[in-house]
Amino acid sequence: MSRTTDIILTALAPAIWGSTYLVTTEALPAGYPITLAALRALPAGLVLIMLTRSLPPRAWLGRAFLLGSLNFTVFWSLLFVAAYRLPGGVAATLGSLQAMMVILMARGWLGTPILAGAVIAAATGVLGVALLLLGPEAALDPVGIAAGLGGAASMAAGTVLSRKWQPPVSPLSFTGWQLAAGGLILLPLALIVEPSLPPLTALNLAGLIWLGLIGAAATYAIWFRGIARLEPGAVSMLGMMSPVTAVILGWLWLGQGLSWLQMSGAAIVLLAVWAGQRANRPRASARRRDTLERSLTVTKLGSSA
């Protein structure tokens, strides 16, 4: 596939994640964030493992649990804390800082150069998200801010390490390993800190199925596929599609107002995402070297598995 096709396909993942707020508020019981995160991750991970018939080899168990913790356990838990303690606009704006964090982490862990255009695009995207979501009711709760920044850092680290560690399996298998690992960590945590779920309605089950099979299994497989094929900075910029989708769904589905300022913010986000893809485009020599390195890594891992 061409790079443009990879970008469009990868962008589908955060665009679909933008439905999480709508589904959570309209279809799921309130007050059980960790339990619902566990029910979202673990069944989806087990389904993917059964479909692909692929368990992580012993050498990959530690990495699978670390990546599952960063991408799901820590990220989702802190995301819910930030959402509960901060207005949605503040939480989402903090989350959009992930793109900047990925640029810095990729420099340290992957040796990726810090490009001025990529930094400008990431900063512009944060501004666009702020215009899109921040309102006069924005409040700065210290715990909520720490959770928002921690969640962004966790997802950024998971993105960069998922690029650094590429197992010789399909994206579906890689996603299944991480979801199952993250869910196994979340489950006992949910049993300890949260009360039992009430009886689930048909709407509750439909919401969980959507968030698990589509919002986790399918979309994260697309996301990790994109991480393997695209530059970390380019992938992280695509994550800004999520708040744009959330606002559009709120306008279409819930009848929420959409001001000119918000529309300007959405346009700025889309422009920043486009600029981020341009800025992070590798040169031809770098693309050939990266392809060769990934091929050698896969061959080495396949022979040692």
Task: Provide structural commentary.
With 305 residues, this protein is an all-alpha fold. It has one domain. The chain is 80% helix and 0% strand. The chain has 14 helices and no strands. The protein has helices at residues 3-17, 20-27, 33-52, 58-85, 88-95, 98-110, 116-133, 142-164, 171-193, 202-229, 232-238, 241-253, 260-279, 284-304. The longest helix has 28 residues, at 58-85. The protein is globular. The two termini are 28 Å apart. Residues 301-305 have low confidence and may be disordered. Residues 7-133, 144-274 form the EamA domain. Keywords: Membrane, Transmembrane, Transmembrane helix. InterPro entries: AA-Vitamin_Transporters, EamA_dom, EmrE-like.
List the helices and strands and how they pair.
Layout: H1 3-17, H2 20-27, H3 33-52, H4 58-85, H5 88-95, H6 98-110, H7 116-133, H8 142-164, H9 171-193, H10 202-229, H11 232-238, H12 241-253, H13 260-279, H14 284-304
Give the tags:
305 residues, mainly alpha, 14 helices, 80% helix, disordered C terminus, AA-Vitamin_Transporters, transmembrane, EamA_dom
